[in-house]
Amino acid sequence: MLHVLNTRPTERADGLNQALQQAGYRVSALPLLELVAEPLDTIQQPLAEIRQVAVVVVVSPAAAQLGLDALKQLNIVPSQLTCQWVAVGQGTATVLAQAGIKAHIPLLETSEGMLALDVFQQDSHSPASKIIMFWRGHGGRQFMLRQLTSQQQVISVNLYHRQLPEHSQLNYQQLFNNPPQVLLISSGVSWQNWLQLGQQFGPIVPEYILVLGQRIYQKISRQAHTLHRFGPDGKAVYPKAMLLESLNPATIVAVLDQLQKCQQT
């Protein structure tokens, strides 16, 4: 069976890892990101403006949990606010629901999917002057932030920063003993960290790269021709990037099942 490398942060990877293992696939974990919370005194001022905003956009479960924790410390009850809430996906919405918040969720769990929601469409009931608050990590969701900022007033609250986990450098080197055939990438920062590890320790080139998000997929597709390994016949073999509709375990298992069939033919 195919060997899959899951590069999601540890706290978001376990459910998918279990689903892939139950489907018979060998799974290795190499988190390419870890999240470090920002201290309250650096986010208190912008977060306190939440009573003035019309929409709060929450881009990850971590942003949801850290934002809610900060509101609690500021004695702000989120369920009593009049704003609408947008969650990037079901995981984020679940965290918000625990605080009594019902959020809008896009069909496609990407920036493009969130921007397509009705809450962001301009009409007579949606004035261009409304204020949007954006809960994210440093450097996250830049495309969506630019799109919103071009049309609305946006308060960006950077609740955490992301970094490459130290232990991932050692774990990367251990992969040379049994390289993965499938690489899962779910963010642009993860991809950059993967390339950084390759430059530092030598590239590991999988057969397939499963990518969440159209923009990241296009970027990786353009760069894939610069990555290669040599097959048994001495010819260069390049990875094939494939676009994922979502990170739903059933979706990924279905894609892997198709790839496995290709391996066996």
Automatic annotation (TrEMBL):
Its EC number is 4.2.1.75. Residues 16-201 form the Tetrapyrrole biosynthesis uroporphyrinogen III synthase domain. It is an enzyme of class 4 (lyase). Keywords: Lyase, Porphyrin biosynthesis. It catalyses: hydroxymethylbilane = uroporphyrinogen III + H2O. Belongs to the uroporphyrinogen-III synthase family. PANTHER family: UROPORPHYRINOGEN-III SYNTHASE, CHLOROPLASTIC. This is Uroporphyrinogen-III synthase. It comes from Alkanindiges hydrocarboniclasticus.
